Amino acid sequence: MEKLTFYALSAPEKLDRIGAYLSERLIRDVGRHRYGYVCIAMEALDQLLMACHCQSINLFVESFLKMVAKLLESEKPNLQILGTNSFVKFANIEEDTPSYHRSYDFFVSRFSEMCHCSHDDLEIKTKIRMSGIKGLQGVVRKTVNDELQANIWDPQHMDKIVPSLLFNLQHVEEAESRSPSPLQAPEKEKENPAELAERCLRELLGRAAFGNIKNAIKPVLIHLDNHSLWEPKVFAIRCFKIIMYSIQPQHSHLVIQQLLSHLDANSRSAATVRAGIVEVLSEAAVIAATGSVGPTVLEMFNTLLRQLRLSIDYALTGSYDGAISLGTKIIKEHEERMFQEAVIKTIGSFASTLPTYQRSEVILFIMSKVPLPSLHHPMETGRTGENRNRLTQIMLLKSLLQVSTGFQCNNMMSALPSNFLDRLLSTALMEDAEIRLFVLEILISFIDRHGNRHKFSTISTLSDISVLKLKVDKCSRQDTVFMKKHSQQLYRHIYLTCKEETNIQKHYEALYGLLALISIELANEEVVVDLIRLVLAVQDVAQVNEENLPVYNRCALYALGAAYLNLISQLTTVPAFCQHIHEVIETRKKEAPYMLPEDVFVERPRLSQNLDGVVIEFLFRQSKISEVLGGSGYNSDRLCLPYIPQLTDEDRLSKRKSIGETISLQVEVESRNSPEKEERVPAEEITYETLKKAIVDSVAVEEQERERRRQVVEKFQKAPFEEIAAHCGARASLLQSKLNQIFEITIRPPPSPSGTITAAYGQPQNHSIPVYEMKFPDLCVY
């Protein structure tokens, strides 16, 4: 062997003849079953290959590969393993000269076939499978970075290599269960095809360039489809974790796009399959978010929301094509519900990894998809349409709640922009109690920036709120601007939500949490005053009961007011205010416990059947509160005013009235408010004659105006100075007299037509007509 190696190195032009001779001998010995000489020939070829790196080695390699192929074609396992080991040695050699005509198609096919070996002998099967995996690893190493070689990333090769590796990955649990004892575990691990396949797959994906990711991922998806591996989803998640941690971070979004496309392609598959794909997508997206998600953020959410709507349609219709026929696959509603929950969970888990600015975009995007009954967002009609609209609203609001949970934004104007807040609060006017509850929880998630939310999960009247250990910061300038702009809108929806008959304990807990968090996160003195007025107005709702609320709702409103005023009194730290609230609460504890949260918000509420005779000692009095807070610097004038919600056009967005009723209502209001009392004259019929008359009249008017201007100019040019001065003086004196009349009326207003009334202290008091009702004379200013 030493002499042969020396001769080959001395005369490299003879190397191809040496290879041809050895190849011929090996083929003959294989045919004659002389396996000893076969091993000698392969050993000689291996040593020559390792020693020689001359330019003529290409012809020798051809002979070598022909011999390896001959061994791999043999039915003897030992010869297959021998050929594989030789090929692996060859794959680790870096050649000095390129080869333009070498093909590895046979080796890819043969090694892939060996990876699927099903020999009866377990040890032989394991060895052949491992040889196949090593062979594929050798092919990848030899070809992946050489542009002159066959492109290993072509689908024809990837469709063989990737499924072969995944097939061996599937049997990892079987391989682990076969290890006889912990002492022999390290030796078994070395012989485990699953671990070798995982290493090979990681190496393959780590070498993948941008344009090759798609060809590498597609066989994985097809393999999981063909072997029904989405439903247990454990193996699928493991595969994609390997993929996401192996590829370059900047290629992560390509994998996400492949999964999204596959989800769309399987939109009519069973709900369990789609749920498995979504779970895998969730795991992959979280990993991808740490690298680079790229432009796929909104695309991902758009796909998930589209699948959510399709799932709602499937659950309502019971089939994938909208109509149940003889061959239609019946859909199980609970499986669709499981899929919907998986989608919502995925939306939340992925959104939690996004930066704030992207999260804000996602929140606006989801809100824009919520169907609202406004003139600009038509909704489906009919019973099926209403159910679809309701389910869509609930699912999208659930998704929005997932995204908003843990959302941290210092500027509330950015967190709750006007277009988003308007749409969100519009859903708070829905009749559906579940939708209203989601809206309240979403608002709480946005406003809670210091983690105080869980401290208000139960409604109570604590004598000392310091035990809650609240995190309170001073209201920032941006928050003050936000409240000035949107506070009345928030108060109005809180007030209207309190008046709903379908409210349950969760609604009142959410309302209490919202009021408390606004007081902690966004409150200045003006906001505190308005919140107190709002809660006192809610107390009046329970007392007057114009809405005919049930007994529980009225007791709940009394209890809600007591709990909030107890909290705000301790936050303001005004002793007289705290004392008044404490006295009313103590009176209720003794004589009316059904007006306190400890008796109302329990599993079995203890209520009073008669709330009409509530005495004033049980109520928080607005006059008393305004008096005590006015002495501490709060705006007592504003505190004295009862809260009345602003009338806006948002009612038209609620489900209470149809669009037709809303339009007719608006027309009726306009007709009532119009100053014209007479009946409207029907519009004149437009004909050719009327148009002609209008044109002629307009021409005549222009002529008259032109003539008047000409006369004025001529007068000032030709008239004597005295005449012009007298004319201008008369105009000036007329203007002055009118101004004098106005000043006289303003300084000394005329007495009221109703005469005088006696004030509270017995002194007569003149009431003047308000300025906006005065009849001012017409002013003619030239």
UniProtKB/TrEMBL annotation:
It is a lipid-anchor. It is found in: Cell membrane; Cytoplasm, Cytosol. Keywords: Cell membrane, Cytoplasm, Lipoprotein, Membrane, Palmitate, Phosphoprotein. The keyword Cell inner membrane does not apply. The keyword Cytoplasm applies. Gene3D superfamilies: Leucine-rich Repeat Variant (1.25.10.10). One of its GO terms (cellular component) is cytosol. One of its GO terms (biological process) is protein localization to plasma membrane. Its main location: membrane. InterPro entries: ARM-like (IPR011989), ARM-type_fold (IPR016024), EFR3-like_ARM (IPR049152), EFR3_Homologs (IPR051851). It comes from the Eukaryota. Belongs to the EFR3 family. Component of a complex required to localize phosphatidylinositol 4-kinase (PI4K) to the plasma membrane. The complex acts as a regulator of phosphatidylinositol 4-phosphate (PtdIns(4)P) synthesis. In the complex, EFR3B probably acts as the membrane-anchoring component. Also involved in responsiveness to G-protein-coupled receptors; it is however unclear whether this role is direct or indirect. Component of a phosphatidylinositol 4-kinase (PI4K) complex, composed of PI4KA, EFR3 (EFR3A or EFR3B), TTC7 (TTC7A or TTC7B) and HYCC (HYCC1 or HYCC2). This is Protein EFR3 homolog B.
